[in-house]
Amino acid sequence: MSTTSAARALDSRTPSSSPAVASRRRRPDRGVWIYVLPVSAVFLFVFVGPLIYTAWTALHETNFYAIGEFSGLTSFTELFADPNLPKQIGTTLAFSLGALVIALPAGLLSATVLNSLHRFKRTVRGLFLLPWLMSQATAGVIWLWFLNPNFGPVTAITTSLGMGPTDVFSSPTSALVGVTLITAWWSYPQAMLLFLGALQTIPGELRESLKMDGGGVWRGFISITLPYLRNTIVSVVIVLLMLYVQMVTIILVTTRGGPLGATETLSMRVFNQTFNDFDLSGASATAILLFAVNVVLTLVAIRFRRKESL
Amino acid sequence: MTTVVATRRKKGAGLRAIPAWIYVLVSALLVLPPVAWVLSTSLKVEADTIDFPPAWIPDPFSSGGYAGLLTSTNIRFFVNSLIYAGGSIVLALLICIPAAYVATRFRSRRMETLMTGILVLSMVPAIVVFIALYSMFVQTALINTYPMLIVVYTAIICGQTILFLRNFIENIPVEIEEAAAIDGCSRPQILMRIVLPLIRPGIAAVAIFIFVFVWNDFLVGTVLATTEDMKTVQNGIVRYISTGFGNFWALFSAFVVVAFLPVLGIFAAFQRWFIAGLTSGGVKG
């Protein structure tokens, strides 16, 4: 029952108490299914069909995009025997958790600060939201130009300090750090918006009584804000993790998975296997693995939604 | 709530607000420089863009980058994105409004299962289904066609669209619909004459959300549009980086700025709806 949501929380109106059970009297007739038919057709065509096709492809040999002989689980055994796989899983974890560790506190802090401001609120909100308003591709390429090793301002600063040009995307470690930071930079406003919606549901009386008892800002944060936001934090973590695990665009426009595969997450592996190596069978096997990771995250999301009605 | 804010403001939180403003300042220093740098580059003469050390203020100012954008290829990118966005808005509303309506008003166990299924499916990583869609389309005539891309965009945003519309429909008192039914309205008539006008704000928010999503999406255009005349604005931006030779930074920056303007304009004009539409699906996950 999706009666509560961030939209509802952002919406300052009180939820109207219309019980939507009037139609329970009769058994819902067959006619209603016509209304959901188009949506179901689109989903069968774009999601269910391709998922089955992916599984089918993973079980067959492929030659470019033509499906050949049945090969059983060969592509899966090859996937798990691939010495690159542990490294790519590590990259995915480092990338996702790294971005999460930055974006989550940044989002929470931004929301708290924004909620406490009384002047220039709209301007500051616009400033905080700016990275997220850009597309992922834009965020990636403008940082690429800003960090350009030959002509960029960052290079100018490091050169004048005598450290030489900054060449973030040419060495493996710094490329991974760079891509992670750009992703966190782009995505923290999403966390902020979700937190902002939740912060507005904290009753003003609580803050008043804190003031009466002489509690400071920190005390208020620990004793009021955090307990109130516990569920929101869980859901933000899941939303962000899902975003990071399937992130392709920012990595694609900045490093394409390189240098030396240092930024090749599982999603990038699927992309590269399909469009660089033309190994569709292998890509499908990796995609199934990625899908499995996503299913786990989705199940956690649904579980928490049911339990705490996020 | 507003009264609480008002009284607090009177007490004057001047000093207490300082840490908050320090945080705002630090954020500004992290957010604005790349943006300012692109803006500055877009106004430079092409030769000045590769000056080292770089200048932040263009000297002389030049609109050459913007003028140079008016090529048929670039216009095609923008037209394509508009077609994809417009088509997706129409198609998504056409199929999602009826679904959201019956899912809200005619709840049954099976209906809930279907809706959960749609939600869960719309969270499948795009790249997972794209490789299959690509290898299916590339063997047929379906690749590089407007309808196909519009259907894919629509499918991706359908889950959130339905969720968001359901919240709006739930807020309509059911009595209005019952009264209409007693007066002899059929179900389609109730949907068209009663529900549709009442959820107009929701439709606007959804349309904004879909427009921004399609306009900002890079991956669909990359994977499912293989010829340049079908690519999107975002592909147009990245094209400079991935295939650019010689001096292209002023052109590139001007393109980035122009591509960002529609989203910025919509955000400035409809801030509330914009934020409501964009966050609705996220938390439901």
Describe the model.
The complex is a heterodimer of chains A (310) and B (285). With 310 residues, chain A is mostly helical. Chain A has a single domain, classed as MetI-like (MetI-like fold, Orthogonal Bundle). Helix content of chain A is 70%, strand content 3%. Chain A has helices at residues 6-10, 32-58, 74-81, 84-116, 121-133, 136-146, 153-160, 172-199, 204-212, 217-245, 249-254, 266-275, 280-308, and strands at residues 60-63, 66-70. In chain A, strands 1-2 form a two-stranded antiparallel ribbon. In chain A, α3 crosses α13 (280-308). Mean pLDDT of chain A is 83; it is low at 1-25. In chain B, α4 (72-105) packs parallel to α7. Chain B is globular and about 75 Å long. Helices cover 75% and strands 0% of the residues of chain B. Chain B has helices at residues 2-11, 18-42, 64-67, 72-105, 109-121, 126-137, 146-170, 174-182, 187-198, 200-216, 219-224, 233-243, 249-269, 271-284. Chain B has 14 helices and no strands. Chains A and B meet through α1, α2, α4, α5 and α6 of A and α1, α2, α4, α5 and α6 of B.
Task: Summarize, please.
The complex is a heterodimer of chains A (310) and B (285). With 310 residues, chain A is mainly α. Chain A has helices at residues 6-10, 32-58, 74-81, 84-116, 121-133, 136-146, 153-160, 172-199, 204-212, 217-245, 249-254, 266-275, 280-308; strands at 60-63, 66-70.
